[in-house]
Amino acid sequence: MSGLAPSGSGTGLQEPRLLLDVQSISKTFPGQVALQEARFALRPGEVHALVGQNGSGKSTLIKLLSGYIKADRGARVDLFGRPADLWHRDERSSRIRVVHQDLGLVGPLSTVENLGLGHGYATGVGGRIKWRQENARAQELLSDFGVTPDVRAPVASLSAAEQAAVAIVRALRGLDDEGILVLDEPTASLNRGEVDALFRAVRRAAGRGVGVIFVSHLLEEVLDLSDRVTVLRDGWVTAAGVDAASLDEEALIRHIIGNAVSLGARPEPAARGAHRLEVESLVGSTLRGVSLKVRAGEVVGVAGLIGSGRDELPGAIFGATPRFLGKVLVDKNKVFADPHESVAAAMAYVPADRKAAGMIPRHRVHEHLTLPQLGGLQRWGKLLHRKSHREARQWADRVDLQPLDVHRRMEKFSGGNQQKAVLARWLRTKPKVLLLSEPTQGVDVGAKPIIYDLIDGAAAEGLAVVVASSDPSELVRLSDRVLVMRGGQVVAELSGRQLTESRVIAETLGRTSLRRRQHRRDHPVRFPVIGSGGGQPGHDAR
How far apart, in Å, are the Cα atoms of 495 and each of 291, 300, 391? Predict the structure, then answer.
């Protein structure tokens, strides 16, 4: 590879030319600036981490790089040394390969068949696939990445780490040393041993000269694997290409959190009531005996990483997702694991996936708001339309729905206004317990304080509120206490002076030893940067 001009350090060494140089790129959605003049540079043979809280702009940047969405006018991007328009796919942009969290593998197909998807197979006479040759080639490719599964077996039968390796190998097929591999939260469902195996595969890819963009919330993994780190916050780059060796978890947390604008403080709570919601030894798909109690007028937050049980807990309490063991009590009365039973017991549940599970997109606002409780809006089995519309308008006005049109279909509103309508629908039922999962996910900045006020108001009226969220600042703003989950269990409870963003993040990630990382710094494994120019300086792969 050709190099850049020597730096001013006087060493005489040339930096390898950049695979990707994003000098400025922005993306605006209706009502929201998702990314503002972001910059990002990727070198051959490096692992460059991209980190930030949910909504920081990471996913938007990845979608822009992969050509899934189009950047705002004025973007300046060089790809493999030449200006590029990522929206128009060509031979260069096709060398950016993305491996998403769900991997995109087809479970019933074999490893060989999955590797051939999008690439094709070697064929012989009559177009017959040379399976023996394909099997040998697949085994060779995977062996290079440190895994040796039976390539003829269904890919669903492989371990999570082996499946991740298959997805990486498939992404790298056809790439030369100037490829770019994007790994979007690849370790979310892996255990520690599987993570180590995945990291070995990633380092092998970097050792070939491939540039790797690694997206993760797990700060230990970011520092363990990466050479450089870029941090996004609220759509802005707050740290660009910082040497990972110069960072520790505390410094990275400061970059991620910054001095974010406050959305107001949690109102001083009134006197707490009795325990309104009691959950005893709840067991579900990921839950391992979770117990909690919430008083009337109290907001309890739930923190945790993906797969910790955080996302499952509200739905399991409500009965929307399976619960295998345990009890749920509302005002000392047992509630069975069924949504109808939960609604009858005055429980309300707002799921994280608003469009798929929280609303009917083609319903009009008045239909949506009145659906859970039609009592008082009917006479002799017929709906009183004027009364229904009048009550819907009152609730739409109460949550500041924009535009204030109860005849408009839900799918026509912005995400923030959809969420306000979803909350209004459940608050109209006068629940005793309000269960919320990611209440401001996909919500614009203007709607967020209104949603927070609605949650504050629900607690002030005596509801027991549970908020599960991946946003530490949101949990600190809303909650009286925060329960931290790892491995399907509650591992910490934070309140009072302990309830800070940095403490929530630290407890969520877990305080782990950095000795492995220090060992790698002291004993680096050197991979050459492969290129046509030869003689390039080695690369310290960590």
Answer: 17, 10, 39
Judged by DSSP in three states, 400 sits in coil
Torsion sign (Cα): 85, 86, 91, 92: positive
Does the pLDDT at position 158 exceed 90? no
pLDDT of 40: 93
How high is the pLDDT of residue 87?
Answer: 83
pLDDT at 401 over 70: yes
CA angle 419, 425, 427 (to 5 degrees): 100
Kindly give the interhelix angle for 131-144 and 160-172, rounded to the nearest 10 degrees: 110
**Identity at 378, one-letter amino acid code:** Q
What DSSP string describes 451-508?
HHHHHHHHHHTT-EEEEE-S-HHHHHHH-SEEEEEETTEEEEEEEGGG--HHHHHHHH
Q: How far apart are CA 525 and CA 506, in angstroms?
A: 29
Q: Are strands 211-215 and 47-51 parallel, antiparallel or unpaired?
A: parallel
Task: Tokens 């390039």: give the residue.
Answer: 536
108's tokens: 């019933």
Residue pair 151/111 in contact by the 8 Å Cβ criterion: yes
- Rounded mean pLDDT, 457-486: 93
Report yes or no: 488 and 298 within 8 Å, Cβ to Cβ. Answer: no
Instruction: Burial-class residue 466 by CB neighbours within 10 Å (0-12, 13-18, 19+).
Output: buried
Nearest alpha carbon to residue 465 among 344, 228, 296: 296
Is 225 a residue whose pLDDT tops 70? yes
Q: Which pLDDT value is given to residue 442?
A: 67
Q: Residues 61-88: pLDDT tens digits?
A: 988 988 888 888 888 988 888 888 888 7
> What is d(CA 313, CA 454) in angstroms, rounded to the nearest whole number?
22
Q: Which two tokens stand for residue 206?
A: 């970097």
Whole-angstrom Cα distance, residue 224 to residue 248?
10
- DSSP 3-state of 79: strand
Phi and psi (nearest 5°) for 523?
-130, 65
Residue 432 near residue 463, CB atoms below 8 Å: yes
How far is the C-alpha of 483 from the C-alpha of 493, rounded, in Å? 5
Neighbours of 226 (CB within 10 A): 26
Does residue 464 have a pLDDT over 90?
A: yes
Q: Nearest 5°: CA angle at 132, between 127 and 136?
A: 125
Chain-centroid distance, C-alpha 380: 48
